[in-house]
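In this supplementary section we document a worked example of the pipeline. Step one takes a protein sequence of length 243 as its only input; no multiple sequence alignment statistics are reported here. Step two produces a three-dimensional model, which step three serialises into structure tokens for compact storage. The input and output of this example are shown verbatim.
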Amino acid sequence: MDWKPLIIRLPDAHLPRGLDDGPTCRSCGTAWPCATAAEHLTEGRCQCGAPTWWEKRGPRNWHVGPSCYTAADVVMAQAAELSAARPASYPPSHFYPPKPSRRRRQEPPYQHTPAGPGDIAPGTWVWVKPGGLHPGWGDIHRFAMVTALGTPKCEVWLHCDGTVHQVLADHLILEGTAARQAARAAGMTTLCGPARDGRPLLPGWEWVDWTVAEHLVHARPAAAAAPEPVQAELFATLEPADA
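The serialised model returned by step three reads:
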């Protein structure tokens, strides 16, 4: 009885040589895979049509024929997979563009707490909505103080770095504690949470969620109605005198 050694993996002596153009066995010199190699391989087919061989008891595989993907194709495919797997999020702060030069100032000495609709003055603390500042300051809310009112833009002082900016009044919303301070000043012990907290405001307190632009419109005096011309007086005609 002939005894044959038990070979679990493909012997290195029977690996292929020259996969791109007619691969041959390194030991047998015949077309690869030879009879010895075929016992340890599973044949497959790539999507490009070229035959492939996978080792049955190992991680090695061979693509017989020219490569169907370049190195750049592989990198682009991996990047697409990572982009699809990761949830969309804001980039870290070091990815924001450089901040342009802005005036810096110490905290202004103004103090003002809104007590009602239209009650906005220098010293009012507000939040600058994302998009109200240059992208260098990030796409987040920024705490600021109104230092000069105007339309369409107001001047604000940023609490984080002391810079001064011109921001559209539509991008400014009142700071949350201002409403609670106004409620206590009005003798109220509690205020149904602001609408941004998912709870309705008490009647008469909707102004808490107004933008500064809405407050300025409310405080602007209504234009006087133009008087209607009296046509009978302006275009009266005289009766011809009797002869």
